[in-house]
Amino acid sequence: MRRRKIGNLKLKSPVKLVCTIVTVSFIITQIFTAVKLRGIPRSAIASTKTESPAKRARIGEFGETVIKLLPEDLAFTLFLPSEEAIRRDLRLNRNDSDAYAVLTRVLGFSSVPRWIWTADLERGGRRSYDSISGLSLSVGKDSNGNVVVNGVVSEVVDLRIGKTVVHVMDGVVMDAEFEQSVRPESDDDDEFD
Question: pTM higher than 0.85, yes or no?
């Protein structure tokens, strides 16, 4: 059997040559990939894990219902009212017959079809996003690192549930017309006194 000579290397078979080329190519590809990944911000890299049960507990029953309304295969950011804010601002209880309809409206006002992490926001700065209902949201970060949306401050930020980024808010993000419709009657009486 004749030996082939390539440069200074003597290879006994073309199989060894192919294996050597594939191995070297693989190593070079891995090096370039590792270098490029260092340039990507951490907030842009999608985590596939779901938050711990302790963090999910902050979402509450109403929050779980709202999250189930979002498509599972698309990236969303949800500015979810806390359980207390839903009871306080919307006067909703679990057994209210119109709870599902109200939560659906709130979902439209408080969801953005993209990821917004706190790392993407600058302290004191504001960015404008449109919610899925078309409401313009002014999103920023205060000096304490809390997310602020249309004046509503967050309680918990950057929860990851499936492909949804959830910021639990201490209030309800909604438009003025909807706010008037859910305002308690006692507030209306105070205006005329």
Answer: no
Pick from 80, 89, 72, 127: nearest CA to 108 = 80
Q: Residue 81 in 3-state DSSP?
A: strand
- Domain 48-182 class, CATH top level: mainly beta
Query: Angle at the Cα of 111 (from 164 to 165), degrees rounded to 5?
Result: 25
Exposed, middle or buried: residue 75 (CB in 10 Å: 0-12, 13-18, 19+)? Answer: middle
Work out the average pLDDT over 134-150.
91
Read out DSSP for 98-156?
THHHHHHHHHHHHEESS---GGGS-BT-EEEEE-TTS-EEEEEE-TTS-EEETTEEEEE
User: Phi first, then psi: what are they for 166, rounded to 5°?
Assistant: -115, 130
Residue 80 host element (H or E):
strand 76-81
Q: Which residue do the tokens 């999103």 mark?
A: 139
Taking a C-beta distance cutoff of 8 angstroms, is the pair 159, 58 a contact?
yes
> Does residue 25 come out as left (phi exceeding 0), alpha (psi in the -120 to 50 range) or beta?
alpha
- Locate the domains of the chain by residue range: 4-38, 48-182
Instruction: Encode pLDDT of 30-83 as tens digits.
Output: 887 777 766 655 544 444 345 555 556 577 788 888 888 888 888 899 999 988
